[in-house]
């Protein structure tokens, strides 16, 4: 009987360690996903600004120098 209790406690401790490691991995994954989301949002905004400047250039509303200046200000 004592051997069964000892084995169950040992297995429970091992499972707790595995679950704790999974929790740490999930937190790290969530942090990386948030960072990736922010970067994708930034690149989306930049793409929209570049497309708008290019459209304005094609329509004749902006000169080539104006486009360069506008995009340089955006970074």
Question: How would you describe this protein?
Answer:
By secondary structure, the chain is an all-alpha fold. It has one domain (2-74). It has helices at residues 2-58, 64-74. Helix 1 (2-58) runs antiparallel to helix 2. The chain is rod-shaped.
In N-to-C order, the SSE pattern is HH
Largest sheet: number of strands, sense, barrel closure:
none
Number of domain units = 1
Percentage beta strand: under 5%
- Helix amount, in percent? over 70%
Structural class: mainly alpha
Oligomeric form: single chain
Q: How many strand elements?
A: 0
Query: What integer value in Å does the Rg equal?
Result: 28 Å
Low-confidence stretches: none
Overall geometric form: rod-shaped
Primary descriptors:
75 residues, mainly alpha
Would you kindly provide a brief summary of this structure?
This protein is mainly α and 75 residues long. It has one domain (2-74). It is 91% helix and 0% strand.
List the helices and strands and how they pair.
Layout: H1 2-58, H2 64-74
Helix pairs in contact: 1-2
């Amino acid at each position: 009987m004592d051997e069964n209790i000892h084995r169950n406690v040992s297995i429970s401790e091992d499972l707790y360690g595995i679950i704790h490691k999974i929790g740490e991995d999930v937190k790290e994954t969530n942090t990386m996903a948030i960072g990736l989301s922010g970067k994708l949002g930034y690149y989306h905004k930049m793409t929209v600004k570049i497309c708008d400047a290019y459209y304005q250039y094609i329509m004749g509303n902006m000169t080539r120098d104006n486009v360069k200046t506008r995009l340089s200000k955006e970074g």
